[in-house]
Specification:
By secondary structure, the protein is of the alpha/beta class. The chain has a single domain, classed as pyruvate-formate lyase- activating enzyme. About 35% of the residues lie in helices and about 20% in strands. It is built from 9 helices and 10 strands. The chain has helices at about 10-15, 15-25, 60-65, 65-70, 95-110, 130-145, 160-170, 180-195, 220-230; strands spanning about 1-5, 25-30, 35-45, 50-55, 75-80, 115-120, 150-155, 200-205, 215, 250. The strands form 2 sheets. It has an 8-stranded parallel beta sheet. The protein has a two-stranded antiparallel sheet with strand order 2-3. Helix 6 packs parallel to helix 8. It is globular, with a radius of gyration of 18 Å. About 40% of the residues are buried.
Length: about 270
């Protein structure tokens, strides 16, 4: 079993102490996101967990606990989102200087292959235009290349509650996902930038294609098997979108608990 920590919220940033208490106890109770009164107990014991996948915009609170996690023999890697968007879209995320600093520290502690950068989601607005993304991605790739070997890119998904939130903030989201042609052209630009910086690029649950960009998995059984000598057989996660190729995992997060406040986020 792979434990996802978490697609639904930023546990490393806002729940690291709680997670460590649960890890020490060997279990966590997780509410059904659609029926909160229904809860299930998820084992966190080493014998029951193949690996953890940590999702975050700010892993620093959890980084202090990594020596204990390592001593417990738990395989893991990080998925770290960094986009450099205006504060209107991302009011409470770390600054670019902070992002570079914790990417650097994390790569030094566990190796750059276990630190995966997510440029996610690509959203087109009056401020985040096609050219904005070309330059922002290129700048980030240059800065983060010493500390990561892979970037995963996905495009904005128009969930109704997110569209309402954007309109309330004065952002007209009609073209926020971009056209298929825009997406493919932008992926081509990203691929060239990633190649110049020695970073592998993958897409996440996207129909758009571009040379040099292969469909990827955020929860990646192949990577875990390679990094840690595991033998996890591939099984597509049936709870994810049709184009998602992620390995099946168990998520232990709760929606509505992230405090970064990103306007485009489906989990807030």
């Amino acid at each position: 079993m792979i434990v996802s920590v978490s697609r639904r919220c930023d546990i490393p940033a806002f729940g690291s102490d709680c997670f460590m208490e649960q890890l020490r106890r060997g279990a966590v109770e997780v509410a059904n996101p659609f029926h909160p009164s229904q809860k299930k107990r998820v084992s966190l014991k080493k014998k029951n967990v193949d690996a953890f996948v940590f999702w975050s915009r700010d892993p620093r609170p959890l980084m202090a606990h990594l020596p204990e996690i390592e001593r417990g023999g738990h395989p893991y890697y990080f998925l770290l989102s960094a986009t450099g968007y205006p504060r209107l879209l991302e009011p409470s995320v770390p600054s670019l200087a902070e992002v570079v600093a914790f990417f650097s520290a994390l790569a030094a502690a566990i190796g750059r292959r276990r630190v995966i950068w997510r440029y996610d989601p690509v959203i087109f607005t009056a401020e985040t235009t096609f050219d904005f993304h070309v330059h922002a991605f290129s700048r980030l790739a240059n800065l983060l290349a010493p500390f990561t070997s892979r970037v995963i890119v996905s495009f904005f998904d128009p969930y109704p509650k997110v569209l309402r939130r954007l309109r309330k903030a004065g952002i007209e989201p009609g073209e926020a996902a971009g056209s298929p042609a825009q997406q493919s052209e932008l992926l081509s630009r990203f691929a060239a930038s990633a190649a110049r910086n020695g970073i592998e690029i993958q897409s996440c649950a996207e129909a758009a294609l571009a040379a040099g960009v292969r469909p990827g998995k955020c929860v990646d059984d192949e990577l875990l098997n390679e990094l840690f000598g595991l033998h996890i057989p591939y099984r597509k996660d049936p709870s994810q979108r049709k184009l998602c190729l992620c390995q099946q995992s168990v998520d232990i997060g709760s929606y509505g608990t992230c405090r970064h406040g990103c306007l485009y986020c489906y989990a807030c």
